[in-house]
Amino acid sequence: MAVVLLTGSAGFIGFYVTKALLESGDSVIGLDNFNSYYTPELKRARTAILTGYRNFVPVEADLADPDSVRRCFKEHSPDLVFHSAAQAGVRYSLRNPRAYQKSNLEGFINLIEEARLFSVKRFVYASSSSVYGGNTKMPYSEDDPVNSPVSLYAATKRANELIAHSYTHLWKLQTVGLRFFTVYGPWGRPDMAYWSFLEAILNREPIKVFNHGKNRRDFTYIDDIVAGAVAALKIDGLGSYEIINLGNNDPVELMDFIETLERFAGLKAVMEMAPPQPGDVVATYADIRKAQVKLGFQPKTSLKDGLEKFVKWYMDNRDLAEAVRRFRKG
Ligand SMILES: NC(=O)c1ccc[n+]([C@@H]2O[C@H](COP(=O)([O-])OP(=O)(O)OC[C@H]3O[C@@H](n4cnc5c(N)ncnc54)[C@H](O)[C@@H]3O)[C@@H](O)[C@H]2O)c1
């Protein structure tokens, strides 16, 4: 059984990956700074579930502080690192560039530097489909050029991949970058459309539909992502430097997505059509052949089934959903 340092354990994806590792018997050191990008109450609620496992050790620390990161490695000597923490979000990066500098650049370097000094066996980190920028060739393949990010968020994610490359080259640190494609599900992210649209529909508020609903996203259900993420950490036979897409391989137009949400919410959305947003890409669509071969990855959840589960979870957790809403409204 391994000792895994998992950053961003209070976040959406980190919470689920931590839970899966704990259930398989690994020890997890879960590091998070509980920042207020969205309500910390949701992060605390996820963490409360994790603290129910005796093999979970929570650490409240900021990755941008090199001393805290060093202390964490010294105290826990992890065998493996799963780096999920980041300042996420494309739109937020237009107004808050420094948050991306701190968490995604300084934080990433602080972590990978300790990982190589402590000779961890594998360093897996969250990248993003956003690195494909304005590419028009579909589906997006790991071999496609990724030199044209269209947001600062995407640029920092691409920078992570390049920094990882230099660490693999210089220090023989095995690194695996996972390019996640629009992940959704219960306990999800309030800033993402599936959550904010459902909230608006239920409260009969208008939703802004950018690019007139023509954007297409490869929505990927959280359980499918977790299966790929755990394999990336554990499976034998990976190369020393890997970049792997984890997506559903089935893009859906925003209007179809809204109709499915309406069906499960039992209400019609009030829509305000809007032009494309700066930084947004028109479509994402993952070529997953590499993930299939290297990680045995096979997404199993359709958008319909996944959204049904999300809406049910939301309805069963109205207190938390209300806390998210209060926080959003300031
Ligand atoms: N959810 C998606 O659709 C998606 C898609 C592509 C890539 N990703 C990437 O996957 C990872 C996880 O995303 P998520 O959806 O779980 O986001 P999230 O915001 O829910 O989780 C990120 C967590 O990291 C923590 N964090 C941020 N900066 C930190 C710092 N400096 N020190 C310590 N903790 C810090 C936050 O408090 C949060 O709990 C991120 O790297 C994100 O960029 C997510």
Automatic annotation (TrEMBL):
Q: Which Pfam families match?
A: Epimerase (PF01370)
Q: Please list the residue ranges annotated as the NAD-dependent epimerase/dehydratase domain.
A: 4-247
Matching InterPro entries, A to Z? Epimerase_deHydtase, NAD(P)-bd_dom_sf
Give TM segment ranges. Answer: none
**Keyword NAD appears in the UniProt entry:** yes
Keywords from the named record: NAD
Is NAD found in the keyword set? yes
Protein name in UniProt = NAD-dependent epimerase/dehydratase family protein
